[in-house]
Write a structure and sequence with these properties.
Blueprint lengths: L1 E2 L3 E4 L5 H10 L2 H7 L25 E8 L5 E11 L4 E8 L8 H16 L4 E7 L3 H9 L3 E12 L2 E11 L11
Parallel strand pairs: 5-6
Antiparallel strand pairs: 1-2, 2-3, 3-4, 4-5, 6-8, 7-8
This protein binds coenzyme A.
Length: 181
């Protein structure tokens, strides 16, 4: 398990799936905002790639996020789009509603940076998020990500086009233990 200050990133367990399905993926608003595609219902027991991990998929590393104190499942975190030639990848995360706003998201981003830069030897990490997602923007910037651009009207979300912000962090600019103010 990868450890941050208060959260751990471990493999996806079978028993995580119904909780993630009910609390994250069945939520139409969260799904529409976070998935980059249309929300649709998931048939129970299906091999939905957002939930069921294919360990042979090399470019996509999904984690379940747990509290270090007690091991309670609090969300998902992913290093995806891993490009081993250009040595870059994207990160993404989603916390269960009850786990938001407690600093876990900032901690998860820090752990994903450790995984990307130290464990995988990547040079650049990238995040795309809706421009009104203040918590995600802040969690990224606290870890040193900088805003590199706005993708105007790039996301169709529940009846309107929204802007996305692209943020990047280079390995040489990453300060592992500093949470930027
Ligand atoms: C986005 C998300 C991962 C952030 O994680 P979090 O644990 O809620 O965020 P944190 O508690 O670490 O807060 C990060 C910062 O944002 C601020 N913040 C938290 N919630 C906020 C909100 N609703 N509005 C404005 N600011 C907020 C915090 O005060 C903190 O700022 P600070 O460091 O200056 O105190 C989490 O809220 C989430 O899973 N949301 C739903 C799914 C999602 O949007 N995923 C990202 C898709 S790209």
């Amino acid at each position: 398990m990868l450890k941050g200050d208060r959260v751990g990133l471990r493999a996806r367990h079978e028993e995580d799936i119904p909780i993630l399905r009910a609390e994250l993926y069945d939520d139409v608003v969260n799904g529409s905002r976070a998935e980059g595609g249309p929300w649709r219902p998931i048939t129970p027991g299906s091999k939905d790639p957002r939930l069921v991990v294919d360990d042979k998929e090399q470019g996509h590393v999904p984690f379940s996020v747990v509290e270090l104190d007690g091991g309670t499942l609090v969300g998902t975190a992913t290093l995806w789009g891993i490009d081993t030639h250009n040595r870059n990848a994207h990160i993404g995360l989603g916390l269960l509603p009850s786990a938001r706003g407690k600093g876990y998201g900032t901690d998860v981003v820090a752990v994903l940076c450790h995984y990307g830069f130290v464990v995988r030897g990547l040079h650049r990490l990238q995040i795309e998020t809706l421009s009104d997602n203040a918590a995600m923007l802040r969690a990224a910037e606290r870890n040193g990500f900088v805003r590199e651009g706005v993708l105007r009207s790039s996301a169709w979300v529940l009846g309107e086009f929204l802007d996305e912000v692209l943020l990047g962090l280079l390995a040489q600019d990453w300060k592992p233990d500093a949470k930027h103010s």
